[in-house]
Specification:
One of its GO terms (molecular function) is ATP binding. The chain is α/β, with parallel strands linked by helices and 334 residues long. Helices cover 49% and strands 11% of the residues. The chain binds a DNA duplex (22 and 22 nucleotides) through helix 14.
DNA sequence: GGTCCACCGGAAAACTCGGGCC
DNA sequence: GGCCCGAGTTTTCCGGTGGACC
């Protein structure tokens, strides 16, 4: 049933993209100076999850590299590499310059100096989920690195620009902003059609069922492809010749919770405990939350650390909160 | 309006951990 | 093995905020 599982994976970069011509063209124009060996101005791609920001950034840079120029490029997920050190390390790794760098004993300044000394073809760095960067001043330092082009990706424009200082703000005001909207239902259906053609045997799903998947995904391509993947697996596991409607309906909640679970899995034990308590209660006050947290773990952290964990959970959209001071309530989002 | 209290979050200090060096 | 260094994490301190109460 599945002929090529890769095309159903979220990280798959297709050889052609649909419904993002304007965005691809704008980004291509921004990157045009690279064809002359000159670095390009930064670009800022923003919009909700599953709207193709990362895919388009990688696709456009890859196409540029294939078609015309000698360009180095590196993708950095700032969710995982959120510290200044980790981000710099990954960027240096993209130009094979980390051989004698030790994660615990090399000063951060050494990493930046080494990046500044880089002499090679233009270097494009995609900073995905850039709002997760702990130290936004790194963007200013990267901006000053000769031959380095930054593509910044985030969900909300304000989450990035609210936290950066005036030096960088004044420079980034000239950055090209590319907004990504949710896909329409028909756009998602076309995207799914391609994935079916590339990765599944013919005639196992009809247009009506693809429309159903698109409707369930509510404009999010990542969810749509996830539903298709899980439905295909389920049908294959049950030796079915096609993907029936009830299987699609069955895998929708599973797919959505699967995506959320990927976030939860990245939490530390203490963060998971806090998340579990809030989920168990639905809503809970800070003191009651801390009391139960102390009961559930053997080595409880201080209230201040717990507050840091909670703000992280909130930032990941795993929990919500209401009220600012005394009447504060934490609540589960599912 | 004044006071108390619970809570938040920034800043800085303290601590932990891992690697290099002698 | 002991010391030093640096990154990351946690703790401490403290000012600010807003609701409750008098």
């Amino acid at each position: 049933m599945i002929t090529d599982a890769r095309v159903l994976q979220p990280e798959f970069i297709p050889s052609e993209v649909k419904h993002r011509d304007a965005e691809v063209n704008t980004l291509s124009s921004v990157l045009r100076p690279l064809t002359d060996g000159v670095r390009a101005d930064p670009a800022f791609l923003y919009g909700p999850s599953g709207t193709g920001k990362t895919c388009i950034a990688q696709f456009t840079v890859e196409r540029l590299r294939q078609e015309v120029v000698d360009v180095n490029y590196q993708y950095v997920n700032c969710w995982e590499d959120y510290s200044r050190f980790k981000t710099l390390y990954t960027i240096l790794d993209g130009i094979n310059n980390t051989i004698d760098i030790h994660r615990q004993s090399t000063p951060k300044d050494v990493l930046l100096d080494r990046l500044k000394d880089y002499t090679g073809p233009p270097y494009v760095v995609i900073l995905d989920e850039v709002d997760q960067l702990q130290d936004k001043s790194l963007l200013y330092d990267l901006y000053r690195v000769k031959d380095l082009t930054m593509l910044l990706i985030a969900n909300k424009e304000t989450e990035v620009f609210a936290e950066i200082d005036d030096r960088l703000t004044s420079r980034l005001t000239t950055a090209t902003r590319i907004h990504f909207d949710h896909y329409s239902r028909s756009e998602l259906t076309t995207i799914l059609n391609d994935r079916v053609q590339w990765g599944l045997v013919p005639n196992i799903i009809d247009q009506e069922r693809l429309n159903l998947i698109a409707a369930k995904a509510a404009g999010d391509a990542r969810i749509a492809i996830g539903i298709l993947r899980n439905a295909a697996r389920h049908a294959h596991g049950n030796s079915l010749d096609e993907i029936p409607t009830d299987v699609i309906r069955d895998v929708v909640p599973e797919t959505k919770s699967e995506i959320q679970q990927q976030t939860i899995d990245r939490l530390t034990d203490h963060q998971q405990t806090l998340y579990d308590i809030i989920t168990d209660h639905g809503t809970i006050e800070p003191q009651a939350l801390y009391d139960e947290y102390q009961e559930r773990v053997t080595d409880p952290k201080t209230k201040r650390t717990v507050r840091n964990h909670l703000s992280k959970l909130e930032h990941y959209n795993l929990i919500g909160s209401e009220g600012n001071t005394k009447g504060r309530i934490y609540r589960a989002l599912t």
